[in-house]
Amino acid sequence: MEIHSSALKHGVAVEDIEHAVRNAMVTDELDDDLRLYVGATRSASLLEVIVVVRGGKRSELAIHAKPMRKKYRRLLAGG
Predict the structure, then answer these.
(1) Does residue 34 form part of some domain?
(2) Alpha-carbon distances of 48 from 37, 42, 55, 56, rounded to whole Å
């Protein structure tokens, strides 16, 4: 996965973005080429990460990452 600079604007570390995607609790298709991951950082804080799904070796580009907002809580078990 590649990480665009726009995914870093909320101060989330690259390692936390990668960890949240790799260990996602929820994956949701948002649009034709957008996917949402909700997963934990290395310190267990929940993140929302949005990626552009692309073909080939560079299959995903993270474009957004920030602490999970309430609107995504419904996607979690018991949410």
Answers:
(1) yes
(2) 6, 14, 22, 24
